[in-house]
Every structure is written in structure tokens, then in C-alpha cells.
Amino acid sequence: QQTEESRLIQQLSGGQKSLVALAFIFAIQRCDRAPFYLFDEIDAALDPSYRSAVGRLIKKESEGTPNVQFITVTFKPELLQSADR
């Protein structure tokens, strides 16, 4: 038997699920930082505007926190625009 929460989550689109997961990861990151984060195609289900926003957020988090590195695998140009390398 499914709970109401699991039914609500199942109704989200792929992009919405990605954003919820990323929000959760960044919330944890602000409380208990790790030395690096490895993201593999986290933007695959996102629209171009959301890809750009995620790229800006990753850049902001990496610049605001010393000794933290974000490694992101992507094939989308919007996320690459904010990358250092």
C-alpha cells in the first residue's frame, strides 16, 4: 500500500524530482560539508533555464566554501557555462 507522500512524489516530473533531490543534497551540504561532490548528469531532465540556475548554484557554493570541489558530468552547455574547468 502506497502512502500519500509516495503517490505525490510519483506525480512529479523527472525535472521536478531532480530539483527536489538537489535541494536536499545542498541542504545537507550546508550543514555537514564534504570535501567534494560528484554529480553525474544531474541536469538531464531539467529545462535549459533550470540547468543554468543549477550551474550558478554550484558555482556559488564552490566559491563560498573553501576546500570544497564539485565535479559534474554533463553534456548540456547551460551547466558548462558556469564551470571553471
Average of per-residue pLDDT values: 89
With helices defined by DSSP (H or I, 4 residues minimum), what is the helix count?
4
The largest sheet is:
2 strands, parallel
Taking the alpha carbons of the first and last residues, their distance comes to 47 Å
Q: Structural class of the helix and strand makeup?
A: mainly alpha
Question: Topology of this protein?
Answer:
Blueprint: H1 4-10, H2 14-31, E1 36-40, H3 48-64, E2 69-73, H4 77-80
Parallel strand pairs: 1-2
Attribute tags:
single chain; mainly alpha; two-stranded parallel sheet; 4 helices
Write up this protein.
The chain is mainly α and 85 residues long. It has helices spanning 4-10, 14-31, 48-64, 77-80, and strands at residues 36-40, 69-73. Strands 1-2 form a two-stranded parallel sheet. Strand 1 (36-40), helix 3 and strand 2 form a beta-alpha-beta unit.
Could you write a compact summary of the structure shown?
This protein is mainly alpha-helical and 85 residues long. The chain contains four helices and two strands; from the N terminus they run H-H-E-H-E-H. It starts with a helix and ends in a 5-residue tail after the last helix.
